[in-house]
Input
Amino acid sequence: MKLYSMKQAVNPQRVRIFLAEKGLDIETEEIDIPSGQNREESFLSVNPRGLLPALVLDDGTVLHESVAICRYIEGVHPEPCLLGATPKEQAIIDMRQREMEFDGLQSIAWIFRNTAPHFAARSHPGAVPDMAQLPDLAARGQILAALWFERLNESLESQEFVAGDSYSIADITAFCAVLFARWVKMPIPDHHSHTQRWFAAMKERPSAKA
Ligand SMILES: N[C@@H](CCC(=O)N[C@@H](CS)C(=O)NCC(=O)O)C(=O)O
Output
């Protein structure tokens, strides 16, 4: 197996943390997004969407989409279980994972991609036509990311982890989203004590450095 990744990019980080939690260390090739290496033919021949991460299996099958990659890894390396064991656990983890992804990660990405000077012409990720930044979309991202932070803190008041009483992929997505939010100057609000407690615990896990 070979992973195409970029150290600073948020979606590859989700997969690297997932792999680290499983105790897996696989061959990785760095692709540089800012310089546009992900839009060059050498990488488009791996993933025509030009998006990271991508995982190439030993039989040549290419998996992209972070959650699909994690689902494959969970299938072949079931322990520790990060996607839930019972149908109810799986549904709750999936629900929370998607909430972290759509309400958190995507809102923050809207802010980042529509404000970062380096991406002035590349406001949408991947192999797509150049598109100008939309200040209104960044503003929408600010509102939705702030709401996501509020809801995350509320949910962590009554439970240790994002999807309940055990660590899961939902924690990984939320952790990466919180780190990504720093890029757009949205740290965890000081008074969000439940998120602060949870984040401190996430940072202690060895996988946090993956
Ligand atoms: N839904 C995809 C999102 C992948 C994605 O947007 N990856 C970013 C890196 S975090 C990327 O490849 N960006 C390329 C670009 O900005 O051109 C997933 O979960 O894997």
In short: The chain is about 50% helix and 5% strand.
